[in-house]
Amino acid sequence: xxxxxxxxxxxxxxxxxxxxxxxxxxxxxxxxxxxxxxxxxxxxxxxxxxxxxxxxxxxxxxxxxxxxxxxxxxxxxxxxxxxxxxxxxxxxxxxxxxxxxxxxxxxxxxxxx
Amino acid sequence: xxxxxxxxxxxxxxxxxxxxxxxxxxxxxxxxxxxxxxxxxxxxxxxxxxxxxxxxxxxxxxxxxxxxxxxxxxxxxxxxxxxxxxxxxxxxxxxxxxxxxxxxxxxxxxxxxx
Lengths: 113, 114
Fold this sequence. Notes:
The complex is a heterodimer of chains A (113) and B (114). Chain A is an all-beta fold. Helix content of chain A is 0%, strand content 54%. In chain B, strands 2, 4, 5, 9, 10 and 11 form a six-stranded mixed β-sheet that branches. Chain B is mainly β and 114 residues long. The A-B interface holds A 4, 30-31, 35, 40-45, 48, 50, 90, 92, 94-102, 104-107 and B 2, 4, 31-32, 34, 36, 41-46, 49, 89, 93, 95-107.
């Protein structure tokens, strides 16, 4: 079953709290991504991971960090969440040599108050 | 500056009607263009991918065209159904591998009414 699973799906945090968003995939894809989606904007790339412990900043990495210790698992961490990080976060995965075929999770909606 | 522009921003059609969604982009190089469907509160699901200089694809009631010279793509939905209500997102990739960058449009929100 080809699936990208995100947890939690919904989260409310207070400003300054830490946030952990988790993503798993069962396709042995080397490459995994974290995006955020805001109204009126296209998805923006936060971080990309090419494999275990091989992570690169995307277009908007400030305020975020990631962890990839197993190929099937990719975490997004917000240390001291800010209200402008309220968004829907999407995880995706792809094969290294087929980066045009992305599989997306269903999203994690984060509200920071 | 936004490199992928989609129009219209939103569209309401009656069930059974046809509709056309537009995508204009300035991404260079433009290796491929993909259309995604995003149901409310869900992830993106791929509908079709276009690769050639002038390309056409068909997937059931969805058909798409790409003209790389004009940097323009269209998504046609024939005989719309209520389940077609969703946001349709155009994505342009500058390479075929994961080393490339994907450029996302903001989407067209399609609402199909009875």
